[in-house]
Amino acid sequence: MSEEILLIEDDPQMQSLIVDYLQNYGFRVTALADPREALERFAREGERYSAVILDLMLPGMDGFDVGKKIKEMADIPVIISSARGDIGNKIHGFEIGADDYLAKPYEPRELVLRLEALLRRYRKSGRYQVGDFLIDESSRELEVEGYPVELTRIEYDIFLYLLKHRGKVLSREQIIHAAGLPADTKNRTVDMHISNIRHKIGDDPKDPRYIKSVWGIGYKFIG
User: Less CB within 10 Å around the terminal CB: N or C of the chain?
Assistant: First the structure.
């Protein structure tokens, strides 16, 4: 499946140009003009996106603030695409966590090349940040707020499944399948693994920061 890019750009012509060019190189693109809508979408389903291309001059909200909020939610490649080409704006862009900065006008091919280079770099590292969590999928290691967390294989698989589908209600049956457990695994076994994960990441089931119980269905990652 091709990788999906979140494009936040309010200029219709520029948005159309970038979408067409990225699609020609095999990317899928979600293009939004409203920065608040983009942040809400990213908060709900950020795991579907491989990178963000961000304009700075957006309606109702400064692009720097948008970029900072995205980087707080996930360690994802962010390329700023802006007519603000002066060195002060470029420096500020990198200060808020942007990975690259392209000053308009530029050749769309350059954007594609930089995007591909960033994605290779992120894939090679295998490490990424989501909220309070640092995940290293290559070594199957997890840190929460800088502290290592020791999870069993099943606990790690369940945690990663919940994390990658954050904001979505997942049934116990879905969790059983994702963790590679036998199909006849009892619901209480899933509940036990969730309880262990909560204990290890410091989550209070009565006042959850990360994993919320959904009565009669299963669980939802809310962190």
Answer: N
CA 9 to chain centre: 19
The domain locations on the chain are 4-125, 129-221
Residue ranges in 57-147 assigned as alpha helix (H):
63-73, 87-95, 108-125
CATH architecture of 129-221: Orthogonal Bundle (1.10)
How far from the centroid of its chain's Cα atoms is residue 206's Cα?
Answer: 26
Q: What share of the chain is helix, strand, coil (3-state, %, to 5)?
A: 45, 25, 30
pLDDT in tens, the chain (223 residues): 468 999 999 999 999 999 999 999 999 999 999 999 999 999 888 878 989 999 999 999 999 999 999 988 888 899 999 999 899 999 999 999 999 999 999 999 999 999 999 988 877 666 777 778 888 887 888 999 889 999 999 999 999 999 888 888 999 999 999 999 998 999 999 999 999 999 999 999 999 999 999 999 999 998 7
Q: Which residue has the tokens 């059983």?
A: 176
CATH superfamily of 4-125: Response regulator (3.40.50.2300)
Domains 4-125 and 129-221 share a fold: no
The helix (run of H) or strand (run of E) holding residue 4 is: strand 4-8
Grouping H, G, I as helix, E, B as strand and the rest as coil, residue 182 is: coil
Count of C-beta atoms within a 10 Å radius of residue 156: 19
